[in-house]
Amino acid sequence: MEILGGINDFFGLDIGTTGIRAVQLKKSGATYTLENYAELPVQGAFTQSDSAMDRQKTTQAIRDLMHQAGITAKHVAANIPSQKVFTAIVDMDKMPEADLNKTIRFQADSFIPTPLEQSKIDWAIIGDSPTDPKKVEVLLSSVPNDYVEARLAMIEAAGLNVVALEPDSMALARAVVPQDSNLPQMVLDIGSNSADLVVVMSGVPHLSRAIPVGANAIVRSVVQNLAVDNNQAQQFVFKFGLDKTKLEGRVYHAIVDTVDGLMNEVEKSIKFFQGRYQASKIERIIVTGGASSIPELPVYIANRFALNVEVGNAWRNVSIPQARYNELAAVSNHFSIAVGLAERSE
User: Which residues of 176-185 are buried (b: 16+ CB within 10 A; e: fewer)?
Assistant: First the structure.
């Protein structure tokens, strides 16, 4: 869904697995300033449930969050989890946009996994095909209609007007990728249950994936291998991580196979991208999400792929007072999606 023209007073709403986050920005020219932000932790992942009772709980949690944040805006740009979105890059013959739209609609069943009549489809031309000069690259996305309708109803029940729904990966890239770079950048957002991977070139996503490995899988590895409870395992992961010098390397050895499983998927994505865009090389990997704070993880990724790795800064494009820098830096890895949604423009 696209943002409605003429609406500037809106905020970004990220309905995540372990928390709901809101960010409201004010734009002046090319500069964003922070007006409000808040995070409401949630237990039990009810925000991802399809049951009517859990949707009601999520609606109430959104109301509580808005009250906590002091947000009075009624227009909102909200996220769609990447696991719910099918995204593909397809090559199409060059033709007028109206004809291309008809062709995509006609051929959609061969591209998307759900029936056309049960899906919302969006597409955009992102440039010439790197493999055939007679074709263009089209970014194609689809979401099941019933999921979109249920999400709209859930948010609107909180008294809000949804002006945009956007996949997590798109919002992520907008928030943490340098706006002045035309070189390919990979964003790896490692959340609780999964990781979102997107490669952005000249501000446009050229590869997007959801990988079913997240912080919870890493914590479970410690539970299983070190015979500790979940709380103790979480403490071990986020205190010692991949540091071989701590606890005689026991935490490192407990989690490294799980981390390598995620890295293997990242490697497949790098190879796929480099195979298609042979004239381009990924410049860096930007790591964000809750698991980005696991000690030594960014260094491990950098050594694995011989690439520059940095921890993403959700507030990269936002002007913030120096007095609030430490406060906002401490929560940056949780707010990339909400900030990216708030940075949408018409």
Answer: bbeeeeeebb
Cβ(77)–Cβ(11) under 8 Å? yes
Residue type, 181: S
**What are the pLDDT digits (tens) for 230-243?**
999 999 999 999 99
Residues 6+ apart with CB under 8 A from 9: 73, 75
Q: What is the pTM of this model?
A: 0.90
Question: Residue holding tokens 């031309």?
Answer: 125
Do the beta carbons of residue 25 and residue 35 sit within 8 Å? yes
The owner of tokens 């089209």 is 138
* DSSP code, position 134: T
Tell me the C-alpha distance between 319 and 303, whole Å. Answer: 33
Report the DSSP beta bridge partners of residue 208: 198
Residue type, 313: N
Q: Which domains does the chain have, with CATH numbers?
A: 10-83+145-178+312-342 (3.30.420.40), 84-143 (3.30.1490.300), 211-309 (3.30.420.40)
Instruction: Please spell the DSSP secondary structure of 157-184, one letter per residue.
Output: TTT-EEEEEEEHHHHHHHHHS-TT--S-
pLDDT at position 99 over 60:
yes
Assign 17 to helix, strand or coil. coil
